[in-house]
Design a protein that fits this description.
392 residues, four-stranded antiparallel sheet, three-stranded mixed sheet, 9 strands, 52% helix, oxidoreductase, AcylCoA_DH/ox_N_sf
Length: 392
């Protein structure tokens, strides 16, 4: 199924405006975000007014209707600034919207799409204290309400991005005690975060990414109506989650690529301004080698992004390629920010310089939406499955 997206000419105008907004508004606000560990309310409002929270929601429901290629380019553009600015709207336009598109009933689309397009914030509740990539270990349980209407949820979700700000959570929960094939023991529920029994823990202190927040979600006898079950049937939650993770992985890959570009631009400027032995260090060949290696790898990630998003828009199954893009781009970003610290030298280790922050901020990209190691296993598993199918 081809995804047409926004008119290309209008989209290019939008990206031009967004690039200006990032450079003139968001980058100057970074110090305030870091100092207060939060995005200023007026900037969040501006982002909502710009429609960033509903970029991928269909136009008829109040969104911008971007296709996957346009969505990834928007994320990459926003990710030139501090990661918090992407993080606050990324769950809306990525995993939450993807799950709604792939799994929601028409009534659920009619209820939730206009709300997130208008700026309500979503979170995605999959990870738990004892289960991340391993859904068989999931403990959160949803049992039918004895009154006959709806479900009662109990459990704890961990490391949930935007939990302190979210209006709605897409919560994965067991609906069967036994582990079933293809994770059919897991269902997905649309849970208003102000529902009685929902408690959000205090935001976790993190290595980097100031201004973006993760926290636990505790569910204690949370009652939701029958209409809260995504798609109206049990046993499909994990499938919806995994499909939406393709989208999340593209977002992390695009963010890694955009942030690597920001770090490299910073290093080029520093290398031209910093002098040693009477000349700019940019003249030294081993500095040039680090710049060239970084440029080469960023270009490779940009090409992967263009390819995987075009395939997604053409309706291809991109599970393996989205995983490969996320692995490469996140590991690449880690190598680039490491080189940038090296180019800054001793200054790169000081908190007053950007290089130190880039280094800390980038580290999480290799972990969330699937660690590099889990995704490598997934890529290999699909390669071997294809080989077995072809060779009987």
């Amino acid at each position: 199924m081809q995804q047409t997206g926004m008119d290309p000419e209008i989209f290019e105008q939008f990206i031009d405006q967004l690039e200006r907004y990032v450079r003139e508004r968001l980058i100057p606000a970074e110090k305030e975000v870091i100092a207060n560990d939060r995005i200023p309310d007026d900037i969040v409002k501006e982002m909502k007014d710009m429609g960033l929270f509903g970029l991928t929601v269909p136009e008829e429901y109040g969104g911008a209707g971007l296709n996957v290629t346009q969505y990834a380019r928007t994320v990459k553009c926003m990710s030139y600034a501090a990661p918090a600015f992407r993080s606050i709207f990324s769950i809306n336009v990525g995993m939450f919207n993807s799950a709604i598109k792939n799994g929601a009933t028409e009534a659920q689309k009619a209820e939730w799409w206009p709300r997130i397009a208008a700026g309500e914030i979503a979170c995605f509740g999959l990870t738990e204290p004892g289960s991340g990539s391993d859904s068989a270990a999931m403990q959160t349980f949803a049992k039918p309400d004895p009154s006959g209407n709806g479900w009662i949820l109990n459990g704890t979700k961990r490391y949930i991005t935007n939990a302190p700000h979210a209006n709605v959570g897409l919560i994965m929960a067991r609906t069967e005690k036994e582990n079933l094939p293809k994770n059919a023991h897991v269902s997905a529920f649309l849970v208003p975060m102000d529902a009685p029994g929902v408690t959000v823990g205090s935001a976790d202190h993190k290595m980097g990414q100031s201004g973006s927040h993760i926290a636990d979600i505790i569910l204690e006898d949370v009652h939701v109506p029958g209409e809260a079950l995504l798609g109206g049937e049990t046993g499909k939650g994990f499938i919806f989650a995994m499909k939406s993770l393709d989208n999340g992985r593209i977002s992390v890959g695009a963010a890694s690529t955009g942030y690597a570009r920001r770090a490299l631009d910073s290093a080029i400027r520093y290398a031209n301004e910093r002098k040693a032995f009477g000349e700019p260090i940019a003249n030294f060949q081993l500095i040039q080698q680090m710049l060239a290696e970084s440029e080469t790898e960023i270009y490779a990630a940009e090409c992967m992004m263009a390819d995987v998003t075009a395939r997604a828009d053409a309706g291809e199954n991109i599970l393996r390629k989205a995983a490969a893009f996320k692995v490469f781009a996140s590991e690449m970003c880690g190598r680039v920010v490491d080189r940038v610290v090296q180019i800054y030298g001793g200054a790169g280790y000081l908190a007053e310089y950007d290089a130190e922050r880039f280094f800390r901020d980038a580290r999480i990209y290799r972990i969330y939406e699937g660690t590099t190691q889990i995704l490598q296993l997934q890529i290999a598993k699909h390669m071997l499955r294809e080989w077995a199918a072809e060779h009987g």
